[in-house]
């Protein structure tokens, strides 16, 4: 490939609007990969933390002791966060004067729902941006392509005899915009679909634990004891 037809040369010689489109797509790609790496680590950490917590929860120890252990963590997440906030809501309601069993159970469910919503929101953070990049980037690239090809045809119309050498740079720079749009969009779409599936599995796991935990606390109340 000659120097005049290298990618760097074509980008440098592109029209201002096409260069702006390329810059937008480059920024979108960088943001996309940053979100992908951050979200991958977040989901992995949440899954591992939930695995460790479930091992401790179902080991048969006292809930009060487990709550003290969780309280020493700097920032519990996943199932540990659900347990912490649900158990604290249970304790507050249980210690309220004249509170009956139904009041305590309802308060516990509310605490678990709030914590579940908060954890779900944390899991979903960044997905909207990935979806936006994945859906919009090809159209931004296509806009740059259309503009570049239009300029190439305008240049052809201004000369009496057009050659491939005259047309090729304009077409090439236009196609680079398309390629950059796809480069930004494809990883974002793939990551969005994978993360959505994994987050759905985690969210179902949170919901199941919240129901089981609330049931354990309710049975303890009605039978006058605590695990």
Kindly state the mean pLDDT as a whole number? 83
Major sheet summary line: none
Shape: rod-shaped
CA-based gyration radius = 28 Å
- The structure class reads mainly alpha
Strand content: under 5%
Query: How many β strands by DSSP?
Result: 0
Q: Uncertain spans, ≥5 residues at pLDDT below 50?
A: none
Count of helix runs:
7
Q: What separation lies between the terminal Cα atoms?
A: 73 Å
Tally of separate domains: 1
Query: What is the ordering of alpha helices and beta strands?
Result: HHHHHHH
**Roughly how much helix do the residues carry, as a percent range?**
over 70%
List keywords for this structure.
227 residues; mainly alpha
Report a brief summary of the structure.
With 227 residues, the protein is an all-alpha fold. It is 83% helix and 0% strand.
Task: Walk me through what this model shows.
- The protein is mainly alpha-helical and 227 residues long.
- It has one domain (3-7, 15-222).
- It is 83% helix and 0% strand.
- The protein is built from 7 helices and no strands.
- Helix 4 runs antiparallel to helix 5 and helix 5 packs antiparallel against helix 7 (164-222).
- It is rod-shaped.
């Amino acid at each position: 490939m000659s120097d005049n037809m290298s990618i760097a040369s074509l980008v440098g010689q592109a029209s201002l609007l096409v260069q702006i489109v390329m810059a937008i797509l480059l920024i979108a790609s960088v943001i996309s990969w940053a979100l992908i790496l951050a979200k991958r680590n977040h989901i992995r950490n949440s899954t591992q933390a939930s695995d460790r917590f479930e091992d401790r929860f179902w080991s048969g120890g006292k809930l009060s002791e487990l709550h003290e252990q969780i309280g020493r963590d700097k920032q519990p997440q996943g199932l540990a966060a659900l347990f912490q906030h649900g158990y604290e809501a249970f304790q507050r309601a249980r210690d309220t004067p004249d509170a009956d069993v139904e009041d305590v159970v309802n308060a516990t469910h509310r605490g678990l729902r709030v914590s579940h919503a908060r954890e779900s929101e944390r899991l979903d953070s960044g997905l909207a941006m990935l979806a936006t990049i994945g859906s919009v980037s090809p159209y931004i690239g296509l806009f740059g392509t259309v503009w570049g090809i239009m300029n190439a045809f305008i240049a052809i119309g201004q000369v009496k005899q057009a050659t491939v050498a005259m047309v090729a740079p304009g077409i090439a720079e236009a196609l680079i915009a398309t390629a950059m749009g796809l480069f930004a969009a494809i990883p974002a779409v793939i990551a969005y679909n994978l993360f959505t599936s994994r987050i759905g599995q985690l969210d179902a796991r949170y919901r199941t634990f919240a129901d089981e935990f609330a049931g354990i606390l309710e049975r303890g109340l009605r039978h006058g004891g605590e695990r």
